[in-house]
Amino acid sequence: MTEPTSKAAVVLLLLLHSCVANNVFLNSHLASQVLVRNRRANQIFEEMKPGNMERECVEEICDHEEAREVFEQPDKTETFWVKYLDCKGTQMTRTAENINLVRQCIEGQCISGQGLNYEGNVNITKTGRMCQHWRHRFPHPIYREYNVSEPNSILVENFCRNPDKNPDGPWCFTQDPTVQKETCRVPTCGEDFVPPTVAPKSVRTTECLPSYGIDYVGDLDITLGGHTCLQWSSPEATALSRDKEFIPEVNLLSNKCRNPDNDPEGPWCYVDVSGNITVDYCDLELCDDPLVGGEQMTETGGMERSVLRPAKKLFFNPRTFGQGESDCGQRPLFEKQNKKDAKEDELLESYREKRIVGGDDAEVASAPWQVMLYKRSPQELLCGASLISDQWILTAAHCILYPPWNKNFTTSDILVRLGKHNRAKFERGVEKIVAIDEIIVHPKYNWKENLNRDIALLHMRRPVVFTDEIHPVCLPNKKVAKFLMTEGYKGRVTGWGNLKETWNPAARNLPTVLQQIHLPIVDQDICRASTSVRITNNMFCAGYKPEDSQRGDACEGDSGGPFVMKYPAENRWVPGGRGVVGRRLRP
Predict the structure, then answer these.
(1) Using 50, 70 and 90 to split pLDDT, how confident is the model at 359?
(2) Is the pLDDT assigned to residue 300 strictly greater than 80?
(3) Which secondary structure element, helix H or strand E, spans residue 382, and what is its range?
(4) Residue 54 — very low, low, confident or very high, per pLDDT cuts 50/70/90?
């Protein structure tokens, strides 16, 4: 080799060395991703049990490469390594006591650090609130990043976890609608632990009023809305009371809250709201008056017999209620033509026996009272609802007002779509889209506790014309409600809600057309025992027992829609209630 050539070779080698020297030595974490080494074999025992986590990382301190040898899969290695660092597995000297602490921490039964490792079963927050199930959306919507559908998800049932690396440690969404989420007091490794308990609920000290408060003679004169009651003897109150049938024994003293007309919502009074004289209720606790009891009805085999169906007696004033009460609940393409839909007999037979079915497509025009509440922006399905006259729509109050879901809609936020069968398609010539100009939420609607009196009325800006696909359902009187609200009797739920439990809003998870399912009414005692939510006599449960082989339920998107039942004595359909999203979904 000539001298110039040898000098050039030396320069080339020096340059090559300077280029690669900085990248030769990688940290153990990165190296373990690309390098594979032969496992050490200190003893015959280690040769027989390669990659033993207990030996490698609990009894001894392991590094990331050794952890990779144990789990052999990058994702499992990373999951373990996050836990291991949080448990101070690389820092604690190995004494018998520390080995036990590291083991408990890795197993997730206690925490060290942020508690990223925690997999225990504490489900009560530090202030004593019960945790919400990670799969449920009530009372709070679970963020989509907490995907409980992943096979290896640690978000199990309603146990406290720390999926977002909260520096305060494990937490959960709470079952209290007024508190979205809260941290938990979970076991700390090496420290004594006293399990948390549910904080006792505050008990209202005032006694409840029996008989709807007819005998109330107190001095309350301020309503739930914060308005001062008008004098009962005022010209405005006198004019509005002229057509009412007041109970003579009720003394209408001054401007005090009273219940002279046996209103089931309790004592009330007239108030002046910006020049509009109206009724408002008073904040008085009523004792639950069960629906059962009272007048008796003649029943034969679970069915009322009726030879001649008289004309329906109107209850509402058409000037305020609108038209439609006289022939409500009789569908133009079915009852008015003496036809039954394919699934109708199942409801009627449930008044004699009990059978279970799953959900399916509803027949066209079989639920002409079905209404879709539609958000203007972004344009999307909000809830279901029921048409009750040519002017009014009935829905659930939580569809309009529910702060935990950021719901506080006004008339400018919502449209109503009537006559629909296809969920996404505009059905030209059949469908009607109408604006609303008034929303009335029940004044005693209780979103903070249990959604008691979860009811709202929407007034359409212009009356709708009835068609074969648009027709109102009947509002039941007390006699009809008593007959139908019986354990085992079935009602029909309709809606366009999700077909399965998923966060994915793709079209494949939504129905093409209106869905229906029949659900049996559940005994009230069983209903109350099945939930920690306080169930009042304004509520009922409908659905299947865990042991039933076929199941179904209402899903997100079905809320607010009708739970209708057919009253055989009058051959009319009436709403038994409005839907609140259940925990089980259609199979």
Answers:
(1) low
(2) no
(3) strand 380-387
(4) confident
Q: How confident is the model at residue 117 (pLDDT cuts 50, 70, 90)?
A: confident
Q: In angstroms, rounded to a whole number, what is the distance separating the alpha carbons of residues 63 and 84?
A: 10
Q: What is the C-alpha separation between 545 and 548, in angstroms, rounded?
A: 5
CA dihedral 227→233→234→238, nearest 10 degrees, is 100
Please check the confidence at residue 151 and state whether its pLDDT lies above 80. Answer: no
Task: Evaluate whether 209-286 and 318-578 have a shared fold.
Answer: no
**End-to-end CA separation in angstroms for the chain:** 82
Superfamily, domain 318-578: Trypsin-like serine proteases (2.40.10.10)
Q: What number does CATH give the domain 209-286?
A: 2.40.20.10
Scanning 390-540, the segments in alpha helix (DSSP H) are: 478-484, 524-529
Q: Is the CB of residue 430 less than 8 Å from the CB of residue 498?
A: no
Secondary structure of residue 516 in the 3-state scheme: strand
Phi and psi angles of residue 23, each rounded to the nearest 5 degrees, phi first: -110, 10
d(CA 357, CA 548): 10
Q: Of 317, 320, 312, 316, whose CA–CA distance to 463 is shortest?
A: 320
Model pLDDT for residues 572-587, shown as the tens digit of each residue: 999 987 655 544 333 2
pLDDT given at position 270: 95
What's the whole-number mean pLDDT along residues 13-26?
A: 41
Cα 399 to Cα 454: distance, rounded to the nearest angstrom: 9
Q: 415: part of which helix (H) or strand (E)?
A: strand 414-418
Q: Predicted confidence band at 310 (pLDDT cuts at 50, 70, 90)?
A: low
Taking alpha carbons only, the member of 388, 385, 387, 389 closest to residue 397 is 385
Residues 358 and 500: their CA atoms lie apart, in Å, by 13
Q: For residue 334, what are the contacts with CB-CB under 8 A and spacing of at least 6? A: 340, 341, 344, 365, 366
- Tokens 């004595």, located at residue: 569
Provide the residue ranges of all domains of the chain, joining segments of one domain with +: 209-286, 318-578
Backbone angles phi, psi at 402, to 5 degrees: -160, 90
DSSP state of 348: H
Task: Tokens 């406290």: give the residue.
Answer: 160
Which residues, other chains included, contact 132 with Cβ-Cβ below 8 Å and sequence gap of 6+? 138, 139, 140, 142, 158, 172, 173, 174, 175
Is a pLDDT exceeding 70 seen at residue 518?
Answer: yes
What is the model's pTM?
0.70
Contact 391/384 with Cβ under 8 angstroms?
Answer: no
- Active-site residue set: 398, 454, 559
Residue 234 DSSP symbol: S
Confidence of residue 69 (pLDDT cuts 50, 70, 90): confident
Q: Maximum Cα–Cα distance for the chain, whole Å?
A: 128
